[in-house]
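This is your field. Have a critical look at the following sequence-structure pair:

***
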Amino acid sequence: MENSGINRIEKLSFPWQTQDPFLFCVHHEDFFPKGNKDLGPAASLEGRMIGQDFTIKDGWRMYHGNKVPGFPAHPHCGFETVTAVRKGLVDHSDSLGAAGRFGNGDVQWMTAGKGVQHSEMFPLLKENEENPLELFQIWLNLPRDSKKVEPHFAMLWKETIPIHQHKDANGKSTEIEVMAGKVGDETAPKPAPDSWAANPENEVAIWHIKMEAGAEFTLPTSENKVNRNLYFFKGKDFKLNDTDLPHYHGAYLDSRADIKLKNGEEEARLLLLQGKPINEPVVQHGPFVLNYPAEVRETIMEFQKTEFGGWPWPSYENVHDKNKGRFAIHADGREEIKD
């Protein structure tokens, strides 16, 4: 398998395993019911472990939410979250007073840096129909010289994310949403400024790949040998060159090898993560990612003392007005209104 450019194939767990510079990736897919007046599910919560509901029941989970599914206020330090929302919406609130609602193709790129609290709630706005949600949250590490930068987030609105279009010799199509990196003539929007991905030499790529049934596509090679992971999460009968890639499996690839993606009889969806490794020590304690244990202890003490600025919102699981569309308010007061 090594000679084919495919180093390893493994079944995906929760969360998905990644390679440096990434820490991990989580794929959330929930088929939420109709919403109620509080933007939570119009369904009984009986039988759920409220506050710690990660078991799929009736097709969905509440996660850490009590009334609204999602993740109430929690801290991060020393890394970045890239939240790519395929379906549904996310309400963001943070300890800097910044906020937003994004989804249905949008991406939020948040640098936690020296420390921030934020909440990520999933408001169920539709009362007359179901509220499906699908998203990826990708944790991208920061190098030592960027671990204490000021917190920041960038919005990569769906309208700004380019799509590389390819048709093979049989006219079958492959589409690649370029959330980071470059494919052909399509270059992703700029990430957060202190990100490892902000330097093109690090060859960070985050691509969502959609392939028509029967389509073939050869992955572009990287300039240097970097870590590359490919995750096959929807479809069937998929091959990498002549090697089977079973459904809900991931492959560790040689980024300089020619790898042909060969899709089977159903539409396929894949996620590709790639980047030059940071090659520094990683010590992770929950939401804190530093280089050495002493730094983690210092960060925990700092959070206990400062709460990274406190919590300026009326609820730890803050949601925004039901009538609001997609928007972002940044810590410096800059506003982005999309709809």
